[in-house]
Amino acid sequence: MQFKLLSTIAEINPRLPEGNYEDDLMVSFIPMANLEAEIGIINLSLEKKYSQVRKGYTSFIDGDVIFAKITPCMENGKSGLVQKLKNGIGFGSTEFHVIRPSQQVLGKYLFYYVVQRSFRNEARKFMTGSAGQLRVPANYLKNILIPLPPLPEQQRIVARIEELFSELDNGIQNLKTAQAQLKTYRQAVLKAAFEGKLSEEWRKNNATDKSNSDLKQKVITYHQTRASRKKNHDLDVSFEESYSRNIPVSWIEIKLKYLSNGVEYGTSDKSEKSGKVPVLRMGNIQNFRFDYSNLVYSNNDTEIKKYQLHKNDVLFNRTNSPELVGKTAIYKLDKPAIFAGYLIRINQIESLINADYLNYFLNSIKAKNYANEVKTDGVNQSNINGNKLINYVIPYCSLEEQNIIVAELETRLSISDKIEATINQSLQQAESLRQSILKQAFEGNLI
Asked: Cα dihedral angle (311, 312, 318, 319), rounded to 10 degrees?
């Protein structure tokens, strides 16, 4: 197989073909976010007038390959073959390189070549610029050698790649469907838990009083005792009329402020790549738990002392995208850590509420529905402040029953976690297989 410089078989960053383009001509517009990494799917839903995009954007035409040049989009595999553009013309991010194939090479062949992870890893070595703004220079693309078989063989290679990818994508879709089903299952289990269904058998065998008067009195007694110790404490306990009517008669519904001693916002101090203690951020919250990878750190002794985490601290994500705001996790480690400003620590009263019970509730669909009612929406972000948080209404039962519910939840959710771990491993293997197929294709071993 012969090798040729890419610049001899394709134009790099060419201009639009000469033509009389009217200002009101509608064209496709592709921001970086509309290009799906590694698989090259392009969202063509956006259209703009030619007059709006002819300056300050990258132009391309049907059949071009667009290749993200900036970090981390390049390393993530943001590239694709543009087809079915509005009037055959498109504009997009200035962070795209455009590769326009000549008659010697198929556009799909070029796309599959540059989307290889090995190609991206090599390109990364030649990036220029400052940290966070590194880019692949156009000259790198112009001077790379690529294997170039005759067109009929290119067609056979592309056809074989797409045949194998089709089978692989079917398997990946099945795995992603299973992932979605697990998410639905988790919420169904949480819903059942906070309607008293997981502890129904326990109540039949252990509950001696069907009323909730003792439960109410326990909360009232706690606050009366606290009030006698703190003369400025004026929190009068009130109970909610059951807004859901889906809880056992022995339960009550009560606002979080009566089950906690307030909330605290996290540190706003700038974090560092290394330091004395880790700083947990909103990105560390995954599936009701903390993920301790991708950590940042603090060396500020004052901040470390003020925001020190303790085992069973429940942390609420107050600012995030609309679908993720309000996610919650519980800190389970004994080693030092602090929490960042987009998180709120809930100082739950241990004698009234189990920390795990609170954590699971705040991740339930009932809590999510309340979050959607009270969140304040901004540009791409939503916020739930501490005052709104302490007014969450919680289905509340005895500590003993809370413990039973937590045990039931953890049994069921641990099984789903194991299944999801297997799915994630399979998805990683599928991506490795995708890259193996491309590697074999361009080494001449696929057909």
From this structure: 50
